[in-house]
Write a structure and sequence with these properties.
The protein has 281 residues and is mainly alpha-helical. It has helices at residues 3-15, 23-37, 49-65, 69-76, 80-89, 91-94, 101-104, 110-123, 133-143, 159-174, 179-195, 197-205, 212-237, 243-280. It contains 14 helices and no strands.
Length: 281
Amino acid sequence: MTQYELYRYNRSRVEDPAGDSPAQLMAAERQWIDDVLSPRGPEDSPATLRDLQQRLAKLIASEQENLPASARFVAEEMTLSQFRVLVQEFAVDGLTEAQTFYYVMPRLTLAAQMPMLRIIIDEFGAGNPRRAHTNLYVELLRELGMPTDLTAYEQRVCEECLGFVNLFYWLTLRADDPSYFAGAITYLETAIPVFFECYVQACERLDIRHSDYYSEHQHIDQFHAIEGQRLLRAMDTSASLDPGKAWTGAWLTSTVTATAFEAAVSKARCDAQQDVQEGVA
């Protein structure tokens, strides 16, 4: 299985929700998820909401205190041509952002749907289409002279970045418990405001005007982090939260996100170097 094959299947589910689920592809997806999780080794799962919250806080604090060298490179050294490649690698996500979130809604209790709905509303601009996160990404692409059509990127981005997109289809559609998604979204919304600082600094340094996609996430995801905690509490109150699975979802998302970012930065460096070599030749 390639991540592109899985991605095409996932997109077909958007267009035809009742379509067939190929057993071989689904088994390969499950193996991919298991392979990502396997390096964790045996560990105690959190048994309560409080235990889960403490582990999430510890994970995020550790990541923020130990930002990877790749993030510093983006903030301080990445060239404009390299930045274009980085933007390209996350274009599939940027151009389809939050579309998968709809699928988890029916799986949540009514009380848990409310914080999730508030997150979704913000993702789509809170009633202003121009502020929808996907449209902010489109404006960034336009400024950089890049295509704005999703199909221009689907077969160009690296497997790891398609894996980041595919993960959320698994979390919302096929994971056996919405707790996985609840942990994942709470982790992501809490981590992004700090992690996106490298993008904001790069845009300032490179004089990129349409950087709202990144700065808006820094702003709004602080509120989404609060909604994520409300989501966890609402699920816990209704006894629909599995803290262990929520923690697994958070850890899985942390790992897949970091892998995608490292792969994208590495590709940006290599592609830009290749352009230089071809120019010299």
